[in-house]
Amino acid sequence: MRYKLLANGNRPIMAYLIPGDLCDVHVSLLAQMDHSIATLSPCRIAYIPRERIDAIMNDHPRLARALWWATLVDEAILREWLVNHAHRPADQRLAHLLCEILLRSKAVGLTDDDSFELPITQDELGDTMGLSTVHVNRTIQHLRATGLITSQGRRVVVDDLERLMEFCGFNPNYLHQQSEAARRR
After folding, report:
1. Rg (alpha carbons) of the chain, rounded to whole number
2. Residue 53 contacts by C-beta under 8 Å, 6 or more apart in sequence?
3. CATH domain 2-184 topology
4. Distance of CA 7 to the CA centre of its chain
5. Are the C-beta atoms of residues 180 and 169 closer than 8 Å to each other?
6. For the chain, what is the HEC assignment?
7. If 0-12 CB within 10 Å is exposed, 13-18 middle and 19+ buried, where does residue 88 land?
8. Shortest CA distance to 11 belongs to which of 37, 30, 31?
């Protein structure tokens, strides 16, 4: 996750990274990061030295384009999170986040159905959506009661993806998951 630690101890979470995501490749251009990164579950990471990134950008235009594309998608997700946070009620905020995580997980082969592992606590969801843990719990219960989701431990099952997307106004275009070949048609 990307987060900031505020002077009052609050920790707004600004992004969730899933396996395969690049993490702040562009930060090598800056002297210092303006946020922090933490893991929420066991993972493996690969460090790519700045010199290697520079070489990729200079010597491999297709890879440079892919890195640029990944950065633009990160920015699109951040914009959607800003809209989500400021203009949707809590139940739609959570539903929107669940739709996003499901589609991003599908895109990298982490699920072949409408369920996914969610190694995020209710406290962390609260830090993501600007809600208390109690409000997050009530919101989850509401989504379950309306038949939009079920859960089995840390696994979230989206019972009707189309209905969940309609409920929260989810339009997946900001994820830019369409292939390059399809975009050229």
Report:
1. 17
2. 25, 28, 67
3. Arc Repressor Mutant, subunit A (1.10.10)
4. 25
5. no
6. CEECCCCCCCCCEEECCCCCCCCCHHHHHCCCCCCEECCCCCCCCCCCCHHHHHHHHHHCHHHHHHHHHHHHHHHHHHHHHHHHHHHCCHHHHHHHHHHHHHHHHHHCCCCCCCEEECCCCHHHHHHHHCCCHHHHHHHHHHHHHCCCEEEECCEEEECCHHHHHHHHCCCHHHHCCCCHHHHHC
7. middle
8. 37
**Residues facing residue 157 across a β-bridge:** 115, 150
pLDDT tens digits for range 45-91: 888 888 898 898 899 999 999 888 888 999 999 999 999 999 999 99
Q: Which residue has the tokens 């990307």?
A: 2
Neighbours of 22 (CB within 10 A): 15
> Is pTM, for the whole model, over 0.85?
yes
Whether 48 contacts 25, CB under 8 Å: yes
- Answer whether 148's CB lies under 8 Å from 160's CB: yes
